[in-house]
Amino acid sequence: MTQRWHLPDPHSQPEFYADVPLKRFLAFLFDTVLLLIVALLLALLTFGLAVLLLVPTWWLLNFAYRAITLANGSATWGMRLVAIEFRTADGRRFDQHEAFLHTLGFMLSFTFFPVQVISMILMATSPRAQGLTDRIMGCVAINRRAQA
């Protein structure tokens, strides 16, 4: 099965994919710190109850944050900070369904460390800088065009 791409070609328009793996890593760090702050505030507001349920709380916060921000702009706040966004194979921004599926794939790969390592290797070595979930869904993260 061949993939029909309606996205910039990585060979003739490499600027759309330049530094995307590094930018994705920086966005991940930003998002993680942001979510850590929210989790700590939640722990304070629940008088420590959220600490008892730290893993499920963290997972649900992470999932909700990523799904909502990807559905509303095709990028998390960290991705917006470093000027990248997701696009489907036909060039569209994510809708709610695609945001949910990408978030689910990300969270599953994040939960199983060897899968995350494979995804990071794919991002660093593929022409379109796609991780495992990106390849399965047929989407890419690209540099955003400058807004006028």
From TrEMBL:
The keyword Lipid biosynthesis does not apply. GO terms for cellular component: membrane. Keywords: Membrane, Transmembrane, Transmembrane helix. InterPro entries: RDD. It is a multi-pass membrane protein. The chain crosses the membrane at residues 33-57, 63-83, 104-124. It comes from the Bacteria. It is found in: Membrane. Pfam families: RDD. Residues 22-138 form the RDD domain. This is RDD family protein. It comes from Marimonas arenosa.
